[in-house]
Amino acid sequence: MGITDLLGAFKKIVELEASIKKSAETIKTQQTKLQDLAEINIRLDEQLKGALRQVDELHKAQADMERRLREVENHGARVDGAMQVLSQGVVKGVWTPPPAPGLGRGSAPPMIDGA
Predict the structure, then answer these.
(1) pTM for this one?
(2) For residues 51 and 41, what is the distance between their CA atoms, to the nearest angstrom?
């Protein structure tokens, strides 16, 4: 093995060393990027959980509003029914308004002094 062979082998070793260093730097850069992505993933996961909680709260509020709407509709239907009964009584001349407070049927109104 001559000096030329030794110089060729040394050159190969230097090239391999440079290639290994470059690969190590690439790996280190990739690890940093992966860590950054992991942190972003954690933040996105937290935001998603918050958004899901808000959606759940909105669903509960929607269900509550729908329940209240049904209550109002039911109340409206009862009022409509009562109004129909009253209007039918008034049209037929059956319904009479109740007496004023303090007055019974057939009693005279209270006397006013000086009248």
Answers:
(1) 0.49
(2) 15
